Amino acid sequence: MTASDTRSYDWRLAAVCLSLSGFGLSAVPFVGTRYGDWPEAIALGIGLLPLVYLCIHMALRITDRFEALEKRISELEGRK
What we know:
Elements: H1 3-35, H2 37-79
Helix pairs in contact: 1-2
C-alpha cells in the first residue's frame, strides 16, 4: 500500500468508527430507560467497541509513523 492509500484508509476507518460509536452512545439513554439494563449494555458496547478498536489500531500504527518520521528527518539532515 502506498502512503496516500494508507492515509485515506485511516481516515475512512476513523470516520466509520466514530459514526458507529456516535449512534451507539446516543442510543444508550433511550434504550436503557425503556427496556432495562441488557439493551443498555448492548448499546454501550456498540458505542464503545469502535472507539477501543480505533485506539488499538492507532497504537499499533504509531511505530510505522515514527519510522517514517525518522526517515524524513534523516533525509533532511543529509541534505545540509
